[in-house]
Amino acid sequence: MKRSFFVRASTLRLAAAAIVFTGCSTPQTRISDHPDLYQSLSQRDQALVSQGQIRIGMSRTAVWLAWGSPDRKIVGNMGGGPTETWLYIYYATYYPPYAPWGPWGYFGDPFYDPFYYSYIPPSIPYPSKVVTFARGKVASFQYVASQP
Q1: What global pTM score does this model have?
Q2: Short-list 49, 69, 50, 70, CA closest to 58
Q3: What would the DSSP string read from start to end of 56-94?
Q4: pLDDT tens digits for 24-37?
């Protein structure tokens, strides 16, 4: 019984991962889908966009080609002029220690885990990239650097 549940759960997870990963776009897919937008950029910006990078002074189009559509947009005001901030959200999954009640689980059995099939770890959202536009150009940007 546990084996059939495990097989069904694994199949469901694999199908969900396939949908998520095939739905993601990359700078290369956005460039190939919109070559006219890419060709309208300067050579310097084309080089950055193809690497998924941005710079101060880039247009919204260039940022969209490099980073994709934002998860959130925030409008504001800076220095007397309108601004627009794009947020890109990343979801980190929190996995608690195996056995918070002790190193050997319940009743001293190292393989007993009553939460194995029922526990769904929480996803914690945080902004992984933030870019602010003023007068239609990038005024500032931030991103979470990967750990070495």
Answers
A1: 0.68
A2: 49
A3: TT-BHHHHHHHH-S-SEEEEEEETTEEEEEEEEEEEEEP
A4: 789 999 999 999 99
